Amino acid sequence: MKKKKSAADKIFVVCNTIFMVFFVVITLYPVLNTLAISLNDGIDTIRGGVHLWPRKFTLKNYHTVFQKQNLLTGAYISVLRTIVGTFLSLALNAILAFIISRKKFLFKSQLSLFWVITMYVNGGLIPTFMVYNGLGLTNSFWVYVIPGMISAFNMLVLRTYMQGIPDSLEESAQLDGAGYTVIFLKIISPLCKPVYATIALFVAVYQWNSWFDSMLYNRMSTKLTTLQYELMKLLSSVMQQSGSAEAAKNAAAAVTPASVRAAATIVTMLPIICLYPFLQRYFVTGLTIGGVKE
Amino acid sequence: MARIGVKEKEKKITWKEVKRQKVLLIWSAAIVVYGFIFYYLPLGGWITAFQNYKPKDGLLHSKFVGLDKFKFLFSDSTFLKVVRNTVAMGVINLVVTFVMAIVFAILLNEVKNTFGKKTVQTISYLPHFLSWIIVTGILHDVLSGTGIINEMLVKLSIVDQPINFFAHTTYFWPIVAFANVWKETGWNAIIYLSAITAIDPSLYEAASMDGAGRWAKIKHITLPGIRPTIMILLLMNVGNVLNAGFEIQYLLGNGLVKSVSETIDIYVLKWGISQNDFSLGTAAGIFKSLVSIILIVIANQLAKRAGEERLF
């Protein structure tokens, strides 16, 4: 067919392109600005006018960040909770989804209902706090990974995917004498790799970004707080112009709380920025299964 | 959503079947025990809302006070203000993020250059992966006295003095709405984009034959095509309206804007954890849960009446 472009069409294309460029600028500018500030001399930044490029280049801000013991401990805890939490959560959700997606399972609908209810009803902050406290999970690393291992939403995404795997695979394995454990580990799981990657990504991002549980349950144990929580403390100290002792120390090093915070922000988002473009296709699949198919 | 309760062929529980499914049953029993402890046991804590709960007396020996805590809540002007803030920000955020995601998805779909399209989309997801801590930190930089917004406002002579955005109650809700749009537009658009891809291309071709322009095609083909997706997502989000109010408000709020920034969740945190009034905190939490459930049921009924897809 011959392409015939009307004037209105051309105007649309131009406006749309402008909109997209505008969108990209709005999205990227704040991030790049923080990067520039983190690489710029702290005192110089106060003068204003630092946009996308550092004016007085320095690595002092990063140097200060890597000397802060609480940030280093926070990073260690954050990495640990992300690895352990993602593994446990994925394993448990996958097992549950496997059970629920077995057609012959005796309590299939009851077990689904039990978990779907948790999507809509929960005890709320205070009762949950009381239970965790009663179980001895406060002031402990395990509070990050043990509660909330199962997410009904993630489980349903996994279940939907597993339901799409032909039954004949399971049946022929059973004829060969394979039990459910073998079917789960050797037949279903290898086929579920893409959706496992999706769920692992969701959980890992959630774990890496968590700070509230750290504040609520572990604020007394400085060795157990997460990087995000330490970053938050840094942010509020900037807003309140921080204690004088800290300020004096910073002045000696020619850094300001604002520029140190910018450096810490960049360090915190670095793992995510490096990883997410490669994982794109996985989360697109996951969201589509979870949202549209249901 | 999950089609639970759909009766399948009646399964008979026989010993043979139980034995065959032994592994499945053991695992599901273990998972149910776990779920009971971490997801259902906290619901038992709702009792404290009807008590004058003292940790030293415990759940069993604290004094029962009936609905006193709820009566106090609804006579507390702070609580009423907090409810207003939660509802207002919840609704504003829901509407703007929804509209923006749909508009963005439709416009991005119109971009014909594959490379450009891919690049814009990849960039658009980025903010979703950043924590609210990082986002609020970035906001502080952008909106500070030396930040780009103030710089532009001063240069364009719209204002003489940089505005202190975080010190005025007027700016708080718009800032929260903008932050939500910034963070989630690209992410929320994913589902719409995949729904658009699923629309039969022959419809567009036929429309072109009839001389339909871009707008006509968007209006008569794309929008109706993603309507079911829009409806189902709207339903899922309506129940969450009251849940959308904690992190950013907590992180951006300060003494000066307290009257517009505090939400139900912050109120619960303040009374429950800082003031140690577990009963009042729980009561406020219960109120929130009940309203959420009612909202979901209402939205579901409305969808049913309109002949749309439903959640359950």
What does this structure look like?
- The complex is a heterodimer of chains A (294) and B (312).
- Chain A is mainly α and 294 residues long.
- Chain A has one domain (61-294): MetI-like (MetI-like fold).
- Chain A contains 14 helices and no strands.
- Chain A is globular.
- In chain A, 39% of the residues are buried.
- In chain B, helix 5 packs parallel to helix 9 (169-197), helix 6 (114-125) packs across helix 9 and helix 14 packs antiparallel against helix 15.
- Chain B has helices at residues 15-20, 22-44, 58-61, 68-75, 77-110, 114-125, 132-143, 148-155, 169-197, 201-209, 214-238, 247-252, 258-261, 264-274, 278-305, and strands at residues 51-52, 63-64.
- By secondary structure, chain B is mainly alpha-helical.
- Chain B is built from 15 helices and two strands.
- Chain B has a single domain, classed as MetI-like fold (Orthogonal Bundle).
- Residues 1-8 of chain B have low confidence and may be disordered.
- At the A-B interface, helix 1, helix 4, helix 5, helix 6 and helix 10 of A face helix 2, helix 5, helix 6, helix 7 and helix 9 of B.
List the helices and strands and how they pair.
The complex is a heterodimer of chains A (294) and B (312).
Chain A: H1 7-38, H2 42-46, H3 60-67, H4 69-101, H5 108-120, H6 125-134, H7 152-163, H8 167-175, H9 180-191, H10 193-209, H11 212-218, H12 227-239, H13 244-252, H14 257-293
Helix pairs in contact in A: 1-14, 3-14, 4-7, 4-10, 4-12, 7-14, 8-9, 10-14, 12-14
Chain B: H1 15-20, H2 22-44, E1 51-52, H3 58-61, E2 63-64, H4 68-75, H5 77-110, H6 114-125, H7 132-143, H8 148-155, H9 169-197, H10 201-209, H11 214-238, H12 247-252, H13 258-261, H14 264-274, H15 278-305
Antiparallel strand pairs in B: 1-2
Helix pairs in contact in B: 4-15, 5-9, 5-11, 6-9, 9-11, 11-15, 14-15
